[in-house]
Write a structure and sequence with these properties.
It is found in: Membrane. The chain is mainly beta. It has six domains: about 120 residues, Immunoglobulins (Immunoglobulin-like); about 130 residues, Immunoglobulin-like, CATH 2.60.40.10; about 80 residues, Sandwich (Immunoglobulin-like), CATH 2.60.40.10; about 80 residues, Immunoglobulins (Immunoglobulin-like); about 100 residues, Immunoglobulin-like (Sandwich), CATH 2.60.40.10; about 240 residues, no CATH class. It contains six helices and 59 strands.
């Protein structure tokens, strides 16, 4: 019973409480406000990106007595509801970047804790938030909470505005300096873009912060830190993201080259991100200044004075910033092309005297240096000065002779051929001229260290003109023609006093006729040009001139020049070509006959090739042939000739003629067999080393065989034979033959020029069979071998007999001929002693030469003594009055 009573009291208390509360709420409903209903209002906040923010909203939990409904809470953003319960709020806060909702009501809603929590705050979360409470059909709003999202700006950047803030914008940084010219204003901007609420920008120079100061002129934002200038700061909405701002600070500073290399730095600081510093923007100042140029000339000379034709080098050096320069050169204001170096080398001429050489170094600006070159040069006359002065007797003449030079030339006047100095001034005045004053005057200019120069000037007497004859001028039809009329006239005829006439009619200049004049000293050449000669242009032209002292005229005939037909030109060319070919063929045939084979009694036998005469020092000589002269007389004498091969011993005939002229002689046909033919190829004398061309030219026809006259060169021997007269395949050598000497009837003739005084005979050795009885190489009687003219250095490859005082070397025919070699008579040393000596023989009298030049002595021994000799020369004396003896050997004629 007690329990029932206790339970009844509890229920009664509850009911009374409810009734009392309901009555209270009913009574107080008319007195609820947002202030007493919302116990904790949200507040405005500034948050950083990616942070978490909570907007508080605490409400009283009441129940509507009529409906029994409690309070309803809603959150709105920028007057747009985002939800009144957790599910709605979370749904609003979901996006694709996160797996969860960034929005939430994390606390106990039944207790009225409607705090809105936003995680990973984004810029889009920024706005005005309101907590709205609905109760008993009434709306109660909390105070508006503004959520501000702070966005850090980008790293600051430096921008230079050129031309003192009026030019283009250039991004600068650590790798790109701020370039400014010396003495100009540098304008820099530091920009921190896309920040919120905007970065705070600070300047530093070489690590020292720039602090604004108050200048005396009260200019705001001025500073003095390393250099003077001023700063400005501004915020403006970003062009790309309008909700963000760009912070810009500008620096203007007046710089000079002392500020070169300073470090300028701009730092940016963002609110809410004080712990997160951004990379500062920095750059160096590069102050450019114009190049400072110096110039010098090498080699160095006092006052830069050089001689003409000297080679100099003008060299420039420069320092500036930047230090890479382009070079330009100017001489007297005119640019020198294709010179890009800092030096200029040239050869000085007189035209370069007082020339100004200027070099320009170009970087960002130009630097200039110049110097003046002085050139010393010799005298030179002005080309424009007159050379001819005309006057009449009794008049005065003033002649000028201006000359240039460095130093200034000294002038002297003289008459041509005279030594008297007439004047030492530039001008020479001749007054009251007389006949002897007319003529040539010499003006001479002198400059120290240079040779003088002179020029002729003339005082000519005025007289009537004279035209030089030029009667005929040939011209082709259709081609231009040029008629020249050379006029000697002092003075020159005036321009209106020269006329051309054709068939009596004056010629006027037009497209067909043109006039020209070519002046010379003392006259003029009048030229009439005819553009295209027509048939009507051929005829007589009259050239007439006047000069105030008389007149003259001459006729000039323009003649028709026939064109050479092209057929004639072609025919002539073809004919010449055929003649050349035929001539070459004939030349080859003749050369083959001369050089091809040696006749050996009808059998051809090739001879071994011989070495050239030049191999033996044989040079500078020639042999000339002449045609046969009918009045030539020859003599013949039979002689016996022997070879090393006894089977080839044969008689032959010596032919000679009188006179000093050379020519051809005809041999009777019945004497042809008396000529000696060398048929043996087994000659024991070593002839392979004999010089080529000892014998005369091979003759294809003995009846017309030519003989050769040597032309001496004044030395001790004739050096060579004409190669056109020689046959290398058919050369014979004067070896192993009997003497070929005259016996009588040789007429004395004047000696030719440069007859040598000796004959050089080349000896050879190792042949004891050189000579048999009545045979020899070359021998004379009574030293008459000396009377033979020299022909050349002979090759005696088989040796030579020694000298015996009382024996002839050999005998031939009906004469015994003795001679002397150059063996030393005192020591009786054989020739193989390697000595050579000349034996002088007295010349023969004219009677001896005409009657019996060579005498015989039958009492002499016939067999000479033979000794081997080395290869050394033996010299015989020569009487220069005897010459021209022809020996016919092996179809050759040798004239000695």
């Amino acid at each position: 019973m007690f329990q029932i009573m206790y339970l009844y009291r509890i229920l009664s208390t509850i009911v009374w409480i409810i009734i009392i509360n309901f009555h209270y709420i009913t009574c107080q409903s008319d007195y609820l406000t947002s202030t007493n209903l919302i116990q904790l209002h949200p507040e405005s906040q500034s948050v950083t990106l990616n942070s978490t923010v909570r907007l508080q909203c605490r409400v009283r939990m009441l129940i509507d007595p009529d409906t029994g409904a409690g309070v309803q809470v809603y959150w709105s953003k920028n007057d747009f509801g985002i939800g009144g319960n957790r599910e709605d709020i979370q749904e609003y806060g979901r996006n694709s970047r996160y797996d969860y909702s960034r929005y939430d009501l994390p606390y106990n809603l039944k207790e009225g804790q409607y705090d809105l929590q936003i995680m990973n705050v984004e810029l889009s979360d920024e706005g005005s938030y309101v907590c709205q409470v609905n109760f008993m059909r009434q709306q109660y709003l909390s105070q508006t909470a503004v959520l501000t999202v702070q966005v850090p700006s980008e790293a600051p950047q430096l921008v230079q505005i050129t031309n003192e803030g009026k030019g283009q914008r250039i991004d600068i940084g650590p790798s790109r300096p701020a370039i400014v010219d010396d003495g100009s204003i540098m304008v820099l901007e530091c920009i921190a873009r896309h920040g919120k609420p905007g970065a705070l920008l600070t300047w530093f120079i070489d690590g020292v912060q720039v602090k604004l100061e108050s200048n005396p002129d009260s200019t705001p934002g001025s500073f003095i830190s390393g250099f003077s200038g001023n700063l400005t700061f501004q915020l403006e909405a970003s062009a790309k993201i309008p909700r963000l701002v760009d912070a810009t600070s500008s620096m203007r500073a007046h710089l000079n080259k002392l500020h070169h290399g300073k470090l300028v730095e701009c730092r940016a600081e963002n609110t809410g991100y004080e712990m997160h510093t951004l990379r500062p923007a920095q750059t160096k100042i590069e102050v450019h200044y114009a190049p400072v140029v110096s110039i010098q000339v090498r080699p160095s000379r006092p006052d830069n004075q050089f001689m003409e034709h000297d080679i100099i080098t003008v060299e420039c050096t420069a320092h500036g910033r930047p230090d890479s320069f382009f070079w330009e050169w100017y001489v007297n204001g005119r640019q020198v092309e294709n010179i890009a170096e800092s030096w200029y080398r040239l050869r000085l001429t007189r035209e370069l005297h007082q020339s100004v050489f200027r070099c320009i170094a170009i970087s960002n600006k130009k630097g200039v240096a110049e110097t003046t070159i002085k050139v010393k040069f010799g005298p030179q006359f002005h080309q424009a000065s007159a050379l001819l002065f005309t006057a009449s007797p009794g008049e005065d003449v003033l002649m000028d002779c201006p000359a240039i030079g460095n130093p200034t030339p000294h002038i002297e006047w003289r008459r041509e051929g005279g030594r008297e100095v007439l004047s030492r001034s530039v001008s020479l005045k001749r007054e009251n001229l007389k006949e002897e004053d007319f003529g040539t005057y010499i003006c001479t200019a002198f400059v120290p260290e240079f040779p003088p120069v002179s020029k002729q000037m003339y005082i000519a007497k005025r007289k009537p003109p004279r035209i030089q004859p030029n009667p005929i001028v040939h011209a082709y039809l259709g081609q231009p023609a040029r008629l020249r009329c050379t006029v000697n006239s002092v003075p020159l005829p005036p321009s209106g006093q020269t006329h051309w006439y054709f068939n009596g009619n004056p010629i006027q200049p037009d497209s067909h006729h043109k006039f020209e004049q070519e002046e010379f000293i003392g006259g003029v050449v009048l030229v009439l040009h005819i553009a295209h000669v027509m048939m009507s242009d051929f005829g007589q032209y009259n050239c007439s001139v006047k000069n105030g002292y008389g007149s003259d005229w001459k006729l000039i005939r323009l003649s028709h020049q026939e064109d050479i037909p092209i057929q004639f030109i072609i025919g002539a060319a073809v004919t010449i070509g055929i003649l050349l070919i035929v001539g070459l063929i004939l030349l080859c045939i003749c050369r083959q006959r001369v050089c091809g084979f040696r006749y050996n009694k009808g059998n051809r036998t090739k001879q071994p090739s011989r070495s050239s005469l030049q191999d033996y020092g044989v040079v500078n000589s020639d042999f000339i042939t002449r045609a046969y002269t009918p009045n030539m007389h020859y003599r013949q004498d039979p002689y016996q000739c022997y070879s090393n091969n006894p089977s080839l011993n044969k008689s032959f005939t010596r032919y000679a003629f009188d006179g000093t002229d050379q020519g051809s002689m005809r041999i009777p046909k019945d004497q042809l067999e008396n000529c000696f033919y060398e048929t043996s190829k087994e000659d024991m004398c070593t002839n392979t080393s004999a010089p080529e061309g000892i014998s005369a030219t091979y003759c294809s026809s003995l009846p017309s065989c030519q003989f050769l006259q040597p032309i001496c060169n004044g030395s001790t021997h004739i050096s060579s034979l004409n190669h056109r007269m020689l046959s290398s395949d058919h050369s014979s050598f004067l070896t192993n033959c009997s003497s070929l000497l005259p016996t009588s009837g040789l007429i004395q003739t004047p000696p030719p020029d440069f007859i040598p005084e000796s004959i050089n005979l080349q000896s050879c050795a190792n042949n004891n069979n050189l000579i048999g009885n009545n045979s020899c190489l070359f021998s004379t009687n009574n030293h008459l071998l000396a009377n033979l003219p020299q022909i050349t250095t002979l090759d005696l490859t088989n040796g030579i007999p020694t000298h015996t005082p009382s024996h002839g070397l050999c005998s031939g025919g009906n004469s015994i001929i003795s001679g002397h070699s150059s063996v030393d008579n005192n020591s009786r040393t054989p020739v193989n002693s390697h000595s050579s000596r000349s034996v002088n023989n007295p010349p023969l009298s004219p009677d001896q030469q005409s009657s019996s030049i060579i005498t015989t002595d039958h009492s002499e021994h016939m067999v000479p003594k033979i000794e081997n000799l080395p290869h050394s020369p033996i010299t015989y004396g020569v009487n220069t009055s005897i010459h021209e003896i022809a020996y016919l050997i092996n179809d050759h004629t040798t004239n000695v």
